[in-house]
Amino acid sequence: MSQRRADQEEGVRKKALLALADGSIFRGELAGADGTTTGEVVFNTAMTGYQEILTDPSYARQLVTLTYPHIGNVGTNPQDAESDRVQAAGLIIRDLPLLASNWRSHESLDAYLRAQGTVAIAGVDTRRLTRLIRDQGAQSGCITSELDEAEAIEQARSFPGLKGMDLAQAVSTETGYEWNEGSWQLEGNEFRPAQRQDFHVVAYDFGVKRNILRLLVDAGCRVTVVPARTPASEVMSLSPDGVFLSNGPGDPEPCDYAIEATQAFLAAGVPLFGICLGHQLLGLASGGQSVKMKFGHHGANHPVLDVESGQVLITSQNHGFAIEEDSLPDNIRVTHRSLFDQTLQGMAHRDKPAFSFQGHPEASPGPHDAKPLFQHFIRLMEQVRAGAGQQA
Ligand SMILES: NC(=O)CC[C@H](N)C(=O)O
Predict the structure, then answer these.
(1) How far is ligand 1, taken at its centre, from the CA of residue 201, in Å?
(2) 186 known ligand binder
(3) Which of 184, 223, 248, 289 makes a 20 to 30 Å CA pair with 195?
(4) Which PROSITE patterns match (predicted)?
């Protein structure tokens, strides 16, 4: 059913601007909440999944530019959120359609953003902005419906950038909980209930996306989610078959508590699977180094080479930091590389049951080519349980 967006007409007409730290100004109209927001400006090239992107905790403190020009066509719904709220610091789009139309839609994007207090700007020349970021690198920005140009530039410059920022503990859950919900099913428009619970997985929440937890449940895991700063000893007392290191925002390097815990799991030979920030933490815990990328990878169609099989996976990506392949010790083998820039996309320990992936096998949004990695984690837990193997 179509929803007329009469309630947002006023908001769309109100002027807003985006200022970058380099002094660039983009003029547009306010979409979402009135006010001012700052963060690191990045671009995402996915053509679908704006609600999943907005609610992905890995986007904390970032102003997300969506390069697909029409954003809002299918409205928003309660099921597609990857966490309990909008996590991106702001949204930058070309065109906010006048109608939101989809059988699952509950609310227009504009109304949703306003309810969430998220400042967004529409009518921006996102192609110019994306080229600027691609050429000069991600930079700090400010979206405002209330400041003048000079004030907005000053605000943009006051945002220090994500390098050195530990945001994982800022977005993590305060208390542990059990997660029992499987993936969303078209039939019945509902989430698949947990079926088997063959393995107990403790999942660190550094900003975890719900679809990761759902795919662990689908794969036959009982999932206990724990806060980012939970010591390894506490996790070990839960007798997990495996430990999962989640995605999350910010720089992995200052997360010393998580790096330390990961080292303890490696030493104990517990099966480990890391996604995105979790991959970076495994890299650091293994002796590697992380770097801030020029503008990162944010999209849903990035080709990644599976080094051993020679297969190319089309993947979902969202990261601004990376582990440097050259910094990895000899006991790590490279399993995946980006075909865009050859950066490290996946690795495994040769002598421990630990592996990780830089992209997003849970997609949401994006293609499912890398989804078999969840089965790989299951096989690893099976092998360790059977005492048959120590390699990822
Ligand atoms: N999605 C993620 O987990 C992102 C990891 C990290 N914050 C980065 O930007 O590289």
Answers:
(1) 22
(2) no
(3) 248
(4) GATASE_TYPE_1 (PS51273)
Q: What is the pLDDT along the chain (392 residues), one digit of tens a residue?
A: 344 444 445 444 699 999 999 999 999 999 999 999 999 999 999 999 999 999 999 999 999 999 999 999 999 999 999 999 999 999 999 999 989 999 999 999 999 999 999 999 999 999 999 999 999 999 999 999 999 999 999 999 999 999 999 999 999 999 999 999 999 999 999 999 999 899 999 999 999 999 999 999 999 999 999 999 999 999 999 999 999 999 999 999 999 999 999 999 999 999 999 999 999 999 999 999 999 999 999 999 999 999 999 999 999 999 999 999 999 999 999 999 999 999 999 999 999 999 999 999 999 999 999 999 999 999 999 999 999 545 56
What is the number of other CB atoms lying within 10 angstroms of the CB of residue 293? 15
**What ipTM is given for this predicted complex?**
0.97
Exactly one of 253, 276, 319, 349 is catalytic; name it.
276
Superfamily of domain 168-385: Class I glutamine amidotransferase (GATase) domain (3.40.50.880)
Nearest CA to ligand 1 atom 5: 277
Would strands 344-349 and 332-338 be described as parallel, antiparallel, or unpaired?
A: antiparallel
CA of 317 to the centre of ligand 1 (A): 9
Ligand 1 atom with minimal separation from the 168 CA:
7
Residue of 247, 275, 317 to mutate, ligand 1, most atoms within 8 A of C-beta: 247
CA pseudo-torsion sign 344, 58, 375, 372: negative
Map out the domains of the chain as residue ranges: 2-158, 168-385
Choose which residue among 56, 245, 316, 319 to substitute to test ligand 1 binding: the one with the highest number of ligand atoms within 8 A of its C-beta. 319
Composition of the chain by helix, strand, coil, percent to 5: 25, 35, 40
Cβ(277) – ligand 1 distance below 6 Å: yes
Verify whether ligand 1 is closer than 6 Å to residue 321 (CB atom).
Answer: yes
| 269 carries a ligand binding annotation | no
Assess whether 362 carries a catalytic annotation: yes
One-letter amino acid for residue 332 of the chain: I
Distance of alpha carbon 162 from alpha carbon 185, whole angstroms: 36
Residues 349 and 332: beta-carbon distance below 8 Å: yes
